[in-house]
C-alpha cells in the first residue's frame, strides 16, 4: 500500500513538473497547440478540397510493373514517362498500394499522418535550436502549397523530406551513423536530398575522426546497395542510369525559379554549367568564411584532419578525436547548404517547395533583418510558389528574395560551433564574436 502511494505521489509530481515546464516555456505549449490546430486543418482539407491527380497514376503504374516482377528500370513506366527515382521509392509506394489498394482517399489520410509527423519533427528541430520566437512557429503551418503537396498531390518528395528531417534530428542528437543511414534512405526515395550532402560531409569531418567519417559513409553506401540490389544484380546499367540521372533537362514551362530565362538558354549546357559553378563556389565560400570561421577556415579544418590521420597511421596518437557540435551550428550549416542548392537549381517544380519551405523561418531569423522584413520575405516566397503557371515576374521575384535572404545569412554573425564544457554563457558569446 505504501509503495502504491509512493508511486501515485511520484506520478503526480511528474505531472506537476510537466505542467510547470509548459507554463514556464510558452514555446512548447504553442508548439503543441500548433500541431493540434494543423491536424484539424489537414483533416478539413482532405474532407472538402478536391484532389487533383498529377503523378499518382504514374506512381501506381510503375509500382505495378515492379510488383509483377519487372527489374529493368527502363521498362518501369507511367503516363508521365519512365521511372527516374531510386528503388526506395518503389518500396514505399508498393507498401502504400498494398495498404490503400491504390485508392486516392485512403492514401490522402496516410499522407495526412505523414504531414503531421514531418511537422512534429521540424517543430522538435526548432525547439532544440531556439532560433525562432515561439509565435513564429506558426509560419510552419501557413503554406497553402505545402499542404497541397502532401495531402492533395501525394508526391514522393514528402517521404524524402520527412526522412531528411528525421536524419537531422539523429545528427543533432549526435547519432551520426544512424543519421547517415536515414539520410541514405531519404536519397533512395528522391535524389534532391543530396543537396544536403556537402554541408553534412563538412559537419562529419568537424565532429568525427577519419575512421568515424569513413564508417558512416560506408554505412550510407551499403544502404543504397541493399535497396537497389534486385536491380543492380539484374540490370545494373539501366538502374544506375535511370535512378541516378544527374543530367536530366526539365521542361521550361514548369520552372518556378527561372521562368524569366529564355527557353533556348534554359535548356543549354552552358546555363547548367554556370549554375553548377555558382553552386560549388557559394558552398566553398560559405564553408571557408562562415561554417569554418572559428577553426581558421576550411583549409585549416582539412589540414588538421590530415595531421590527425598521419598521427593515427604512425600510431603515435591512436585515440579517436570527436567533438560535439552545437545543434544551432548543425542546423544552420545544413539548411544554408541546401538553400544554396535551391538557389542554383536549374528548375524548381511546384512540389520542390517542400525541399526547403521548412527551412525558411529558421533562415530568416538567422539574418539580422527586422521582423517585419522577415515576414514580408516569407510572404513573398509563398506568394511566388502559389502563382500558377509561373511567369517572368513571379520567378524574378522568387530569385530576388532568395538572394536577399542569402545576403542576410552572409552578413549575420556566425554561431560558435562546439558545445562548451563550461556553463558560462558569456564565454560562448565572446567566442562567437
Automatic annotation (TrEMBL):
**Topology in membrane:** Multi-pass membrane protein
Gene Ontology cellular component list? endoplasmic reticulum membrane
Q: In which pathway does it act?
A: Protein modification; protein glycosylation
| Subcellular location per the Swiss-Prot or TrEMBL entry | Endoplasmic reticulum membrane
Coarse class of the primary localization is endoplasmic reticulum
Q: Name one GO molecular function term.
A: dol-P-Man:Man(5)GlcNAc(2)-PP-Dol alpha-1,3-mannosyltransferase activity
Span of the signal peptide: none
Q: Where are the transmembrane segments?
A: 28-51, 107-127, 147-171, 178-198, 210-232, 270-289, 395-413
The answer to keyword Ubl conjugation applying to this record is no
Q: Which Pfam families match?
A: ALG3 (PF05208)
| Annotated keywords | Endoplasmic reticulum, Glycosyltransferase, Membrane, Transferase, Transmembrane, Transmembrane helix
Indicate what this protein is called per its UniProt record. dolichyl-P-Man:Man5GlcNAc2-PP-dolichol alpha-1,3-mannosyltransferase
Q: Which domain of life is it from?
A: Eukaryota
Q: What is its EC number?
A: 2.4.1.258
Question: What catalytic activity is recorded?
Answer: an alpha-D-Man-(1->2)-alpha-D-Man-(1->2)-alpha-D-Man-(1->3)-[alpha-D-Man-(1->6)]-beta-D-Man-(1->4)-beta-D-GlcNAc-(1->4)-alpha-D-GlcNAc-diphospho-di-trans,poly-cis-dolichol + a di-trans,poly-cis-dolichyl beta-D-mannosyl phosphate = an alpha-D-Man-(1->2)-alpha-D-Man-(1->2)-alpha-D-Man-(1->3)-[alpha-D-Man-(1->3)-alpha-D-Man-(1->6)]-beta-D-Man-(1->4)-beta-D-GlcNAc-(1->4)-alpha-D-GlcNAc-diphospho-di-trans,poly-cis-dolichol + a di-trans,poly-cis-dolichyl phosphate + H(+)
> Is the keyword Glycosyltransferase in the record?
yes
Amino acid at each position: 500500500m505504501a509503495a502504491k502511494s509512493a508511486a501515485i505521489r511520484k506520478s503526480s509530481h511528474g505531472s506537476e513538473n510537466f505542467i510547470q515546464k509548459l507554463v514556464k516555456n510558452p514555446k512548447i505549449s504553442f508548439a503543441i497547440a500548433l500541431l493540434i490546430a494543423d491536424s484539424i486543418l489537414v483533416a478539413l482539407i482532405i474532407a472538402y478540397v478536391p484532389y487533383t491527380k498529377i503523378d499518382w497514376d504514374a506512381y501506381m503504374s510503375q509500382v505495378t510493373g515492379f510488383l509483377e516482377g519487372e527489374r529493368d528500370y527502363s521498362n518501369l513506366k507511367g503516363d508521365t514517362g519512365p521511372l527516374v527515382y531510386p528503388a526506395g521509392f518503389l518500396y514505399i509506394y508498393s507498401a502504400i498500394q498494398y495498404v490503400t489498394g491504390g485508392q486516392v482517399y485512403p492514401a490522402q489520410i496516410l499522407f495526412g499522418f505523414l504531414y503531421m509527423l514531418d511537422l512534429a519533427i521540424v517543430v522538435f528541430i526548432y525547439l532544440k535550436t531556439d532560433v525562432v520566437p515561439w509565435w513564429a512557429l506558426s509560419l510552419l503551418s501557413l503554406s497553402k502549397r505545402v499542404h497541397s503537396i502532401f495531402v492533395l498531390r501525394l508526391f514522393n518528395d514528402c517521404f524524402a523530406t520527412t526522412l531528411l528531417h528525421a536524419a537531422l534530428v539523429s545528427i543533432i542528437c549526435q547519432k551520426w551513423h544512424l543519421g547517415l543511414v536515414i539520410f541514405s534512405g531519404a536519397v533512395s526515395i528522391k535524389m534532391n536530398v543530396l543537396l544536403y550532402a556537402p554541408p553534412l560531409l563538412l559537419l562529419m569531418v568537424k565532429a568525427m575522426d577519419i575512421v568515424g567519417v569513413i564508417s558512416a559513409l560506408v554505412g550510407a553506401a551499403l544502404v543504397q546497395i541493399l535497396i537497389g540490389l534486385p536491380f543492380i544484380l539484374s540490370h545494373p546499367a539501366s538502374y544506375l542510369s535511370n535512378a541516378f540521372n544527374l543530367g536530366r533537362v526539365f521542361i521550361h514551362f514548369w520552372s518556378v525559379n527561372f521562368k524569366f530565362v529564355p527557353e533556348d538558354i534554359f535548356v543549354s549546357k552552358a546555363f547548367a554549367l554556370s549554375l553548377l559553378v555558382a553552386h560549388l563556389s557559394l558552398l566553398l565560400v560559405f564553408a571557408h568564411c562562415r561554417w569554418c570561421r572559428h577553426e581558421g577556415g576550411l583549409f585549416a579544418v582539412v589540414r588538421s584532419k590530415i595531421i590527425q590521420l598521419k598521427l593515427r597511421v604512425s600510431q603515435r596518437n591512436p585515440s579517436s578525436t570527436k567533438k560535439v557540435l552545437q545543434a544551432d551550428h548543425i542546423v544552420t550549416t545544413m539548411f544554408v547548404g541546401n538553400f544554396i542548392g535551391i538557389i542554383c537549381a536549374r528548375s524548381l517544380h511546384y512540389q520542390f517547395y517542400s525541399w526547403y519551405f521548412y527551412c525558411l523561418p529558421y533562415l530568416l531569423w538567422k539574418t539580422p533583418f527586422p521582423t517585419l522584413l522577415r515576414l514580408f520575405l516569407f510572404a513573398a516566397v509563398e506568394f511566388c510558389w502559389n502563382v500558377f503557371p509561373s511567369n517572368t515576374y513571379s520567378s524574378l521575384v522568387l530569385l530576388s528574395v532568395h538572394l536577399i535572404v542569402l545576403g542576410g545569412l552572409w552578413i549575420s554573425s556566425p554561431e560558435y560551433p562546439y558545445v562548451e564544457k563550461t556553463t558560462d554563457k558569456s564565454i560562448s558569446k565572446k567566442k562567437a564574436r
